[in-house]
Automatic annotation (TrEMBL), chain A:
SUPFAM superfamilies in the cross-refs: Periplasmic binding protein-like I (SSF53822)
Ranges where the Leucine-binding protein domain occurs: 35-396
Family from the record: Belongs to the leucine-binding protein family.
UniProt keyword annotation of Signal present: yes
Signal peptide region: 1-23
Entry protein name: ABC transporter substrate-binding protein
One Pfam family recorded for the sequence: Peripla_BP_6
InterPro entries in alphabetical order: Leu-bd (IPR028081), Peripla_BP_I (IPR028082)
UniProt KW keywords: Signal
Highest taxon, organism lineage: Bacteria
From TrEMBL, chain B:
Domain of life, per lineage: Bacteria
InterPro entries: ABC_transp_permease, LivM-like
Subcellular location per the Swiss-Prot or TrEMBL entry: Cell membrane
Organism of this sequence: Ideonella dechloratans
Protein name, as recorded: Branched-chain amino acid ABC transporter permease
Recorded topology in the membrane: Multi-pass membrane protein
Major site of localization recorded for this protein: membrane
Length: 439, 355
């Protein structure tokens, strides 16, 4: 045992310190990825798209000459492993400093939230994460880019309002929310109740216990209630089961609206014909027609360097989310370079870049991502920036967009978010930044 | 020859009550403590504290808690993670409901609540044994995390059910940084280990072992079985509850019921089995094996050039290697790593002669 122990200690030390080569002209992305385990479909797609975009940028000379580099650490979506990976990778690689962490997991994001702030390393929780981290004055290093959970449900309610002929028609309508029995699933219940009071619709919250393959009684309840719409706040296996059970009890699929983690090909394909007509939100259309995706195809995938094990998943929802995430991360680095110089940047400098992200249609067109990414504008006080979604419908083969950008009621949500952030600051003894003084 | 025990006779009653009878062991322990308390906090980096040492210590304490129950008192349990969860959430709620309560008192309350629950789920042990008892503790494993998710009261109405730790301060010192959290964990674990080590040598510990080895005989010689068994459940629950508080507040800084699932219970059971049933040191050896070995494998693999092996495949390969290692250890040392130490000692006595 002693020999073995010495060996393992040496191995650990080697892994931690790494080979201390001289600082290269590289910017590093630590990837807490998950490619095995129950959520592998999301992980492989997202990190595949992210890595392919970084390769695409490198193929065009990097960001102002700074090459992008990355390494992966498998988390299996497990919080403890995510923390270990974070601590292992945060120091950078071979002298290249880390730019930001992107765990794509609510649990890992919560567990590394304090650490990111202490280490001055931006924590990107695109489309998920802690809602009140939108308030950058309390959470300086956390960025729920594009869409936080509250904006997500608010946009869905606004869309239902459009469907029934105006928000005032929502009064008296019945909406059921079927949610996953986990912290992620419960996060929006409170704000849904507030929206129900505001618009006067009748809300029923139904929980589906983890992992979600037993929903018979919930759907029988739904049949009894006869709601006008069902909001599906699912995750993993829960989604196809919900669609199949809905068909069994005879609930119309086109009145089920999936949230941001119920919107991928992997959610509908296993449900087969039962999924036809199902509507879900998205922040990024699937498809391969966007110039940036064509560029990735030409420079990365056709060159044999693509990260996807299954090339057929190119252009799917999870893959495009990865590309979108890559675009936002790289744009933040690019912006920060304009201020701090064209060299590898520290996490603190990249954070400045994220806080000043401003993507308008013109810039998106230059990036070849017009229509793929929504226009965004972040600031010290607002770490979300967008808050809009589009709606897509599954036609049995692929997702078809059925709406333009639908905006969340951000003015209504902002006081709720600020109150929650303020409470957090009080619990933790944080003095909020004064955003009026920040440039 | 340098591990001679000969001549170390106890001449006074006080010597007989020593924790470690051999001077070699006392010095070795003193050296380890000096390094752990005096050197590591200054020398270690965040990775060592946050990813290796704190989880290792917290899981050691959990393993110790289960070892008291299973290794010493002979009561099988698969509810360890549930009691950890109860301890973590109780500690959190105690601090919220009683503002100004120091965190260490909160952790103690967490331990007490876990102990009470543990006794409740241990009651069936008065009628049933062995595998049947596992079912009762398994009920705790399903019921407690479910209740913690279901009733938002436990997470203080937090929207997502995930709660974060308040700052850890001692007499005005903020110990929320990794080195501080390591020190807190270390001191807590050391204190409780010292108590446990004394306890298993006390009358109570002897009673537990009597119950474990043959409960009928134990009852015949006048040991109260209900008292011994329920005390084992209570004390084990307390240890697990404090371990849960450490896990949540010193390690992850956040609590999520999902982190205390059945897999965690099995992990603690493996720690006890691989480390050695009925041994205090075994809990630490087992935790070292379970926590450090996968990390070492994963770090080794991380040193491979990018893209050599697919990251997912690598994880599966590591799982296979780790499984093989567990089997190897159990074949070579079915009584756990703790008995390796015993064997090494008997060899050292004869060194350099062989047999």
């Amino acid at each position: 045992m002693t020999l073995r122990k010495t060996f393992s200690t040496a191995a650990l030390a080697l892994g931690v310190i790494g080979l201390n080569a001289q600082a290269a002209n590289e910017q590093y992305f630590p990837l807490q990825s998950y490619r095995v385990g129950p959520y592998a479909a999301g992980g492989t797609g997202f990190f595949g798209g992210f890595i392919d975009y970084l390769q695409y940028v490198n193929a065009h000379g990097g960001v102002n000459g700074v090459q992008l580099t990355w390494s992966e650490c498998e988390t299996e979506y497990v919080v403890e492993k995510g923390v270990e990976c974070y601590e292992r990778l945060k120091k950078g690689l071979n002298g290249a400093p880390a730019a930001a962490t992107n765990p794509l997991s609510v649990g890992i994001a919560y567990a590394t939230l304090d650490r990111s702030t202490a280490d001055k390393l931006p924590l990107i929780t695109i489309n998920h994460g802690r809602t009140d981290s939108t308030d950058g004055s309390v959470f300086p290093y956390v960025f729920p880019l594009q869409l936080n959970p509250y904006s997500e449900v608010s946009a869905i309610v606004n869309f239902i309002g459009q469907k029934v002929g105006g928000p005032d028609k929502l009064r008296g309508k019945k909406i059921v929310t079927l949610y996953h029995g986990s912290p992620y699933g419960k996060e929006t219940n409170e704000v849904l109740q507030k929206l129900a009071t505001k618009f006067g619709f009748e809300l029923t919250l139904l929980e589906v216990p983890h992992p979600g393959n037993e929903q018979q009684s919930q759907w029988l309840t739904i049949r009894k209630i006869k709601p006008d719409y069902v909001i599906l706040r699912g995750w993993g296996v829960m989604n196809p089961v919900a669609l199949k059970t809905a068909q069994k009890v005879g609930y119309p699929t086109d009145h089920i609206i999936g949230n941001i983690w119920s919107n991928s090909e992997e959610d509908v394909t296993p449900a087969g014909a039962a999924a036809k007509g199902y509507i879900a939100i998205t922040t990024h259309p699937s498809g391969t027609a966007f110039p940036v995706l064509q560029g990735i195809k030409k420079d990365v995938i056709d060159a044999g360097k693509g990260n996807l094990a299954d090339p057929k998943r190119f252009g799917t929802v999870y893959y495009n989310l990865g590309v979108e995430n890559g675009i936002l991360n790289v744009e933040a680095v690019r912006l920060a370079q304009a201020r701090f110089g064209n060299k590898p940047l520290t996490g603190e400098q990249v954070r400045w870049g994220f806080e000043h992200l401003a993507l308008d249609d013109k810039r998106l067109k230059e990036l070849g991502a017009l229509g793929l990414v929504q226009p965004l504008k972040l600031s010290c006080a607002d770490h979300e920036g967008g808050g809009a979604v589009r709606f897509q419908q599954w036609d049995g083969q692929q997702w078809k967009l059925i709406s333009d950008w639908v905006q969340a009621d951000r003015a209504f949500l902002r006081p709720i978010i600020e109150a929650s952030a303020l409470q957090y600051a009080k619990d933790k003894g944080i003095t909020p930044r004064n955003c009026a003084k920040e440039s | 020859m340098w591990f001679l025990e000969a001549g170390q006779f106890s001449t006074r009653a006080a010597h007989d009550r020593r924790l470690l009878p051999l001077w070699q062991e006392r010095w070795a322990l003193a050296a380890v403590l000096a390094v752990a308390l005096g050197v590591v906090p200054f020398w270690g980096n965040d990775y060592w504290f946050s990813a290796i040492l704190i989880p290792f210590l917290a899981l050691s304490l959990a393993g110790l808690g289960l070892n008291l129950l299973t290794g010493y008192a002979g009561q099988l349990s698969l509810g360890s993670a549930a009691f950890m969860a109860a301890g973590a959430f109780a500690a959190y709620n105690a601090q919220l409901c009683l503002p100004g309560l120091p965190w260490w008192l909160g952790w103690g309350i967490g331990g007490l609540v876990a102990a009470a629950l543990s006794v409740l789920f241990g009651l069936p042990s008065l009628r049933i044994k062995g595998f049947y008892l596992i079912v009762s503790t398994l009920a705790a494993q399903f019921l407690i995390p479910w209740a913690l998710v279901k009733f938002s009261w436990f997470s203080h109405g937090s929207a997502s059910g995930v709660i974060t730790a308040p700052p850890l301060t001692v007499a005005g010192w903020d110990l929320s940084h990794p080195a501080g959290r390591y020190l807190l964990t270390l001191v807590t674990v050391l204190g409780l280990t010292w108590v446990a080590h004394n306890m298993v040598r006390s009358e109570l510990g002897r009673q537990w072992m009597a119950v474990r080895d043959m409960d009928t005989a134990a009852a015949v010689i006048g040991i109260s079985l209900p008292r011994a068994k329920l005390l084992a459940f209570a004390i084990s629950g307390f240890y697990l509850g404090v371990a849960g508080a450490l896990w949540a507040f010193a390690y992850l800084v956040t609590v999520e019921p999902h982190g205390f699932d059945l897999a965690r219970s099995f992990q603690i059971l493996f720690i006890v089995i691989i480390g050695g049933l009925g041994s205090v040191a075994g809990a630490f050896l087992g935790a070292a094996f379970i926590v450090l070995f996968p990390l070492a494998l994963s770090n080794l693999a991380g040193a491979l050039p990018n893209g050599w092996i697919d990251a997912g495949q690598l994880e599966n390969l590591q799982k296979m290697a780790f499984g093989a290692l567990i089997i190897l250890v159990l074949i070579r040392e079915p009584e756990g790593l703790a008995s390796l130490w015993q064997r090494w000692r008997s060899r050292a006595r004869r060194w350099p002669l062989r047999h």
